[in-house]
Write a structure and sequence with these properties.
Elements lengths: L4 H20 L3 H9 L2 H13 L17 E5 L5 H12 L7 E6 L2 H11 L10 E5 L13 E7 L8 H11 E12 L5 H23 L2 H13 L3 H10 L9 E4 L4 E7 L2
Parallel strand pairs: 1-2, 1-4, 2-3, 4-5
Antiparallel strand pairs: 5-7, 6-7
The chain binds S-adenosylmethionine (SAM).
Length: 264
């Protein structure tokens, strides 16, 4: 605003998000498993299987020439990246697809690098980690990416529209923008149960397991504030993407959803 309030608020939000993820980095897996009762793993598996990285887009045959250039934004711990590389290698027999994991938080990246040591990709040119803000990807050239993914990251961004615009810029024509994020539960009764669970149990689990109630309180609130499926689909459309079908797929009754857009 004129008085700079907005900038101060935004800086505070960025700082807060940074603090939250620095504090949850080491307990991140345990907490995700506890909070989602392990379901986040199934959602991530489905997300990756459905995107089918490494598939030859024209023939559905194994893509052997140069693979896909994938950018996994807010991918700190490498969860999506490792699945992408495993899928490309084992399902599509593609040894060329590569993933760049970008995250704003060095602690999450450190956790990802550590976990990469237990995969076949630790020293491979197919996997790299970079520190970057999704809203300003200056180091990524225009029209250079085949698939841009962001899993459980975009709701934390201060300027979501800017991040979507950056996604559009870096994707090649025909490239896919794919988002896995918490969303809105579409059944009233289920929603009531889910809200009870998330607002009471999740901060409590955070306190008991990670000794950090506030960060988990923030996570629950950020889920509540995130746009609905249709609002988010419209944000993707407004950035210029073509949106296939209704634009999203609900997972577990809308607790999470996958949104997709294709750059024309
Ligand atoms: N994608 C991983 C997964 O699904 O397990 C990590 C998700 S974690 C809930 C959210 C991540 O978003 C954190 O690692 C955080 O540092 C990152 N993040 C938040 N704001 C960001 C931004 N503006 N640019 C890039 N990463 C950001």
């Amino acid at each position: 605003t004129h008085f700079g309030f907005e900038t101060v608020a935004e800086a505070l939000k960025e700082q807060k998000v940074r603090g939250v993820f620095s504090s949850v980095a080491s307990s991140y897996d345990t907490m995700n498993d506890l909070m989602s009762m392990g379901i986040h793993r199934l959602w991530k598996d489905h997300f990756v299987r459905n995107l089918n990285p490494g598939r030859n887009p024209l023939t559905s045959a194994p893509y052997e020439q140069k693979g896909w250039n994938i950018l996994d934004i807010a991918g700190g711990t490498g969860d999506i990246a490792f699945r992408m590389l495993d899928h490309a290698s084992t399902i599509n027999h593609d040894a060329h697809t590569k993933v760049t994991v970008a995250d704003i938080n060095p602690d999450m990246l450190a956790e990802g690098r550590k976990r990469a040591l237990e995969t076949p990709y630790a020293r491979s040119p197919r996997l790299q980690f970079i520190e970057a803000n999704a809203e300003k990807l200056d180091m990524i050239p225009d029209s250079s990416i085949d698939l841009y993914t962001v899993a459980f990251g975009i709701r934390n961004f201060t300027h979501k529209e800017e991040a979507i615009r950056e996604a559009y810029r870096v994707l090649k024509p025909g490239g896919v923008f794919a988002v896995l994020e918490f969303s809105k539960v579409n059944n009233g009764l289920f929603d009531a149960v889910y809200k009870r669970w998330s607002f009471s149990a999740i901060p409590l689990i955070g306190q008991l397991v990670a000794g950090d109630r506030d960060s988990y309180q923030y996570l629950v609130e950020s889920i509540e504030r995130f746009p609905s499926q249709t609002e988010f689909r419209d944000m993707i459309k407004d950035a210029g993407f073509l949106v296939p079908g209704q634009g999203w797929e609900d997972l577990t009754g809308g607790i999470a959803a996958i949104h997709k857009g294709v750059k024309p």
